[in-house]
Every structure is written in structure tokens, then in C-alpha cells.
Amino acid sequence: MTDGTPPGADKAAFIAAARSNDTAQFALITERYRRELQVHCYRMLANYEDAQDMTQETFLRAWNGRASFRGHAAPRTWLYRIATNACLDFLDKHGDRAPGPAGPPGAGSEVHYLQPYPDRMLPEDPQEAVVARETIELAFIVAVQHLPPRQRAVFILRDVLGWPAPKAADALELTVASVTSALQRARVTMRGRLAGRRLDWRRPATHELSDDERDVVKSYIDAHERNDLDGLMALLRDDLRFTMLPDPGALVVSAEDAVDGWVSSGLFRPGYDDWRCVATTVNRMPAAALYLRRPDDPDHRLFTMAVLRVVDGKIIELTGFDATGKPWLGLPAAL
Prior knowledge:
By secondary structure, this protein is an alpha+beta fold. It folds into 2 domains: about 180 residues, no CATH class; about 120 residues, Roll (Nuclear Transport Factor 2, Chain: A), CATH 3.10.450.50. Helices cover about 45% and strands about 15% of the residues. Strands 1-5-4-3-2 form a 5-stranded mixed β-sheet. Helix 4 packs across helix 5, helix 7 packs across helix 9 and helix 10 packs antiparallel against helix 11. The N and C termini lie far apart (about 55 Å). It holds the Pfam family Sigma70_r2.
């Protein structure tokens, strides 16, 4: 089938590189799709490192299968098909890559393999549907993980990327009827897990943080650096959802429980009271990178990242990630 894209220089160059067996030229042409393919793999897998691996696997499969590219579809379509199936193969082999016991709608602790996505690695074109804020935020990524793998692939191809049903069916080797049925079931699940949020994922949306978000992350950093537990508490909504990943089962669903947990774990006590923080963004969400200085260390070392969802000037979701040993976050290891 064709995808409606007229033949052009890009497709001709792609075919020429594939037929010439020129590894360097083929890599040069496919590289331009790396960032958007990696975001696609991330939506499928919710894990940045796995998305990196599957993007590389996509390019390897594309090179090995280059003879199968006949130019009937655009190079982008062909690569997305390969990437989708690489992710499906990954999920088939990893039985642990599924959410645990169901929690409250929007809860994230079941997806213990969730990792943040650094904004600096997103595609640069702000008009691309692939980087719409609503489809890269943590809650959306978590909700997608509650779909069975093939249903997940159908949903992403159809409702996020906007592929027509025949095109998605061709990519997944399914019938159009199967794709339509899978999409209907996926939409029911997504609406249930993202209740109260905007569900028109392909409509243009802002990518910028609001003034409220900027102010809250600034106040969060200030309270942390001053060891001000009351100040932190004042930023939290009573119905806060907090989880610390990758620890399984760490979800708490109230501000009081979250603060009690922080106190019992020693937050702001000696050894956990010398903080410096850096404002950043991941998944197009406000975040703070937290650096801790131990008594015997002259430097503040990168410790955790707190990703915040802000509603009406307060934090309603706080997802903490272990930030050590993750250079891809693009943060200095020490301050």
C-alpha cells in the first residue's frame, strides 16, 4: 500500500542508499528519524534506555531488511513499522514489562520500569504530533502501559500519530476490523485512566510551562534547600499522588502520607539536609534535580529527580526517580 506521500528526493535517496549497500549513506539518511522513532519506542515501553536500544535495533533491522523497501511507502512509515514490531518483540520476550496490580486511576507505581524522558532528546519541530505535551507526560505514558501490547501499538499509531486504519493494519499485519476493534477498547481504557484530562491528543497544544508551574518548581527547590518541611507541605494538594521509582509498591495517595514517609526515611535529618537543586524539565513537565552533599564529601552529588504535575498552583502528582548513573538525563553528576 502507499501512504499518500508523493515520491520525492528523500524517498529516491533512501532507495539509492539501500540498493548501493553503502552503510554510511544509509545510516546518514535514517539518522534524521532517530529522535521521533525513539519517542515512539518510549511510548511503547515507558523506559528511556529500552527505547534507545529498540531504536538502534530498528536501524539494524532496517539495514538488514533494506532489500524489502520498494518505495511503496515513505521511509518514515517503513521505519515506524519496523520500530513498532521491534517493541512488540521486546514485550513478547519480557513478561515483567507489564503494570502490576491495578491502583487508582492515574497511579504510576505499578509501572516500576518507568523512566523520565529528557526534553533535550525530543524532536526539535514543536509542530510534530509526536511531541505534543499531552502524549509525552508521565500520566499518559503510564496509562498506555495498561494496554495490551498490540492494542497499545494500534492506539499509538492511530490516535497519537494519526495513521489511518488501513495503514496501521498493514504495519501490524492485522485486518482493518481488528485494528478498529482494538482502538475502541484502547480508548475506553485510556479515558478511564486519564479521567478529567484532555483526550484530543492530536489537537495542537502548548509545549511551554505555565507561570504556575515555574513558580511551584521554584518554591519546591527553595523549600528543599532550606530544609523546610512545612514549606514543602504547603505546596502539596491533599490528594497528592507520590511514588519513588524504581521501587515497586512505593505509591502513596495523600500529602500527609507522603510527608510522613519522607520524615520516617530521614529527610532533612543529618546526612540528608545539605541540598542543592536545579530546575529542569522532562516529559515536558516541570522537574527538580536534587543534589545531596554527604558530610564527608566536598561536592553535592546528583541524587534524585522530582517530576511535578501542578494543578491550580499546587502539586497533585510527584514522581521521584533515582537519577544516579543516568548520563542521558543531561545533568551534571556533581555541583
